[in-house]
């Protein structure tokens, strides 16, 4: 596995991965926050996104390379 320096995923990243628009990606991240019981100031990690979406972590990491 390659060295991955980012821990946080942003709506722009989700949009690029899923093909959804920015607003839909932002709403998806809000759903993920709710699912994991996070507060509004907390962020969603790449690992949490992958677990929620059922995507292999390696696939997302290779997407960012």
Structure, explained:
This protein is an all-alpha fold and 65 residues long. It has one domain (11-64). 58% of the residues lie in helices and 0% in strands. The protein is globular, with a radius of gyration of 11 Å. The model has no long low-confidence stretch (mean pLDDT 91).
What labels describe this entry?
mainly alpha; 65 residues
The outline comes out as globular
Count of discrete alpha- or pi-helical segments spanning 4 or more residues: 4
Which structural category do the helix and sheet elements fall into?
mainly alpha
End-to-end Cα distance, whole Å, is: 11 Å
Largest sheet geometry: none
Query: How many beta-strand elements?
Result: 0
- Unreliable runs: none
Structurally, the number of domains stands at: 1
Residue fraction in strands: under 5%
Please give the structural blueprint:
Layout: H1 11-18, H2 22-35, H3 46-53, H4 57-64
Helix pairs in contact: 1-2
What is shown here, in short?
This protein has 65 residues and is mostly helical. It is 58% helix and 0% strand.
């Amino acid at each position: 596995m390659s060295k991955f320096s980012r821990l946080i995923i942003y709506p722009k990243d989700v949009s690029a991965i899923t093909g959804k628009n920015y607003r839909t990606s932002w709403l998806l991240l809000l759903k993920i926050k709710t699912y994991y019981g996070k507060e509004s100031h907390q962020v969603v990690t790449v690992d949490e996104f992958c677990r929620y979406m059922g995507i292999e972590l390696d696939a997302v990491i290779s997407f960012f390379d």
